[in-house]
Amino acid sequence: MDSFIVISLIKIFVVFGALMTILAYLQWVERKVIAHIQVRPGPYRVGPHGLLQPLADVIKLITKEDLVPPYVNKVLYLAAPFLAITMALLSISVIPFGPKIQVAGYATYMQLTDLNFGVLLILAVSSMGVYGIALAGWSSNNKYALLGGLRSSAQMISYELPLSLAIAAPLLISNTLSLRKLVEVQDGWLWNWNLFHGFQYVSFIVFIIAAFAETNRVPFDLPEAENELVAGFHTEYSSMKFASFFMAEYANMVTVSCMATLLFLGGWVAPWPAKYGSGYVPVAIFAVAGVIAIWRGLNPRRKRDRFTFPPFGVVFIVVAAVFLVPLVQSALLPLFWFCAKTGAILFLFMWIRGTLPRFRYDQLMGFAWKVLFPVAMLNLLATGLAIALFS
Amino acid sequence: MELILFLVFAGIAVAAAINVVVQRHPISSAISLIAVMGSLAVLYLLLGAEFIAAAQVIVYAGAIMVLFIFVIMLLNAGGETKPGRSFIASLLGVPVLVALLALLAFFTARIYPRDTEVHFGGFRGGTAQAVGRALFTTYLLPFEITSILILIAIVGAVVLARKELE
């Protein structure tokens, strides 16, 4: 019992620390990705390639004046950002990153807690996340904020339906509500993943679209459309309170990407079994990246490349070597695949932000009710029928 | 541990429920109602009814209360004025309430002895699997009738709203 509490506390610290770092750096990655889509360098001044930019942003946000406007409803105004960030961070507690591992004699899951209704918990927590935004909009006592809050609550209620229906189809195939078992049935080859195994292409696309709307991301970022609503629901927020809304948005992005990975892409499972060498993929990727970085450092196109590229190359090669150590392999390999799949979906989020324009509000609602909802419903019916006929 | 959790969340539920009535502003009342539903979900969880707990949060605290708050925000309703108090209500209210609760507690204690597991008819257990099996076998007809009833209500609401628009 005692060791359980100690291990759980350690896991919570590790996961929380990693999540916070990832949230800070996701912002940097997004700015870089969008910058390169728009053919400009992006953050470049703070640290090599702007790598210390998140740190600078954090310092800036903490030291900014924390202003509470006199006309707000104080209790709700102060509670709203906490509500948003709490609900956003809560769902990471049921997400499994890997299988059972042995650490110093203890066997533990790479997951904070395994609930046999994990999927429902994530849905519940995400449906509570609306309050942070809605109450922020209302309590600010500002018409732009109110409109932003209204839009976001309407949008999130509407898109939660197709999202849940899209989730239900792979759950039918896997026959479980536990996120861990969900991954375990997708083990083996690429075509055992729910996406390919159950022909869940439609529900995958519906899930991704609804996830964009749930996280208020482009092209569904109507709640914070700056050309009509200033900044939407967080217009009146400053300093760390603004930062918590920002972090909540990114944490929600991470959560839905993890969900997509677990539901459709086989979670931490490699695309093909380890006996055919899937364990050497990360080694190869990191080694090649390291060699390229060192080579570019030795033949610099710009003067500073000579100093910035070789350290990164060495780091990559060290990481590649770490993946070869058998002791840590059992933990690192699943984590690599999980992060690779989740990262690919996060990249999709950024890619689409750099590509698509914003929807009009009536288009947004019409699309949810007239297109996504019937499509998700039909897909669920078809999946159910197929399962009833063939299994 | 379970007893402490029960006392804490039952206390929150009761306090928040009283707060729903006491608060003057509709938003504060709505938020108290969310707190009631959240603590009820925890109580369900303590009883082992995990599916009901999740559904409670998703449907009531998540969907229905968001609609409540949405409407309150949309109408931008202000605080209520203090209503005039009826003499009889203030005289009889508390004793009648206490009597009602005492009756409920008495009959619950009489019908269900202390050591019975929580059950609904012959149905026990609160996992999604057990609830689903019961819904689609034993209670299939009531389940389908309820869903058709809800569908009729939705259609009715749309028809009524349409008429007002024209």
Blueprint of the fold:
The complex is a heterodimer of chains A (391) and B (166).
Chain A: H1 2-37, H2 53-63, H3 74-90, E1 98-103, E2 106-110, H4 118-139, H5 143-174, H6 179-184, H7 194-197, H8 201-214, H9 226-229, H10 239-264, H11 281-298, H12 305-322, H13 326-353, H14 361-390
Antiparallel strand pairs in A: 1-2
Helix pairs in contact in A: 1-2, 1-10, 1-13, 2-10, 3-4, 3-10, 4-5, 5-8, 5-14, 8-10, 8-14, 10-13, 11-12
Chain B: H1 2-22, H2 26-46, H3 50-75, H4 87-111, E1 119-120, E2 123-124, H5 128-136, H6 140-165
Helix pairs in contact in B: 1-2, 2-3
Please describe what this structure looks like.
The complex is a heterodimer of chains A (391) and B (166). Helices cover 68% and strands 3% of the residues of chain A. By secondary structure, chain A is mainly alpha-helical. Chain A has a two-stranded antiparallel sheet. In chain A, a hairpin with a 2-residue loop joins strand 1 and strand 2. Chain A starts with a helix and ends with a helix. The mean pLDDT of chain A is 82. With 166 residues, chain B is mainly alpha-helical. Chain B folds into 2 domains: 1-78 and 119-124, NADH-ubiquinone/plastoquinone oxidoreductase chain 6, subunit NuoJ (Four Helix Bundle (Hemerythrin (Met), subunit A)); 127-166. Helix content of chain B is 77%, strand content 2%. Chain B contains 6 helices and 2 strands, in the order H-H-H-H-E-E-H-H. A two-stranded antiparallel ribbon of chain B has the order 1-2. In chain B, helix 2 (26-46) runs antiparallel to helix 3 (50-75). The longest helix of chain B has 26 residues, at 50-75. Chain B is globular and about 45 Å long. In chain B, 17% of the residues are buried. Classes of the chains: A mainly alpha (391), B mainly alpha (166). Chains A and B meet through helix 4 and helix 5 of A and helix 2 and helix 3 of B.
Give the SSE order of chain A as H and E letters: HHHEEHHHHHHHHHHH
- The CATH architecture of the largest domain in chain B is Up-down Bundle
The N- and C-terminal alpha carbons of chain A lie at a distance of 41 Å
CATH class of the largest domain in chain B: Mainly Alpha
The low-confidence runs of chain B, each spanning 5 or more residues with pLDDT under 50, are none
- Return the CATH topology of the largest domain in chain B: Four Helix Bundle (Hemerythrin (Met), subunit A)
SS-based class of chain B: mainly alpha
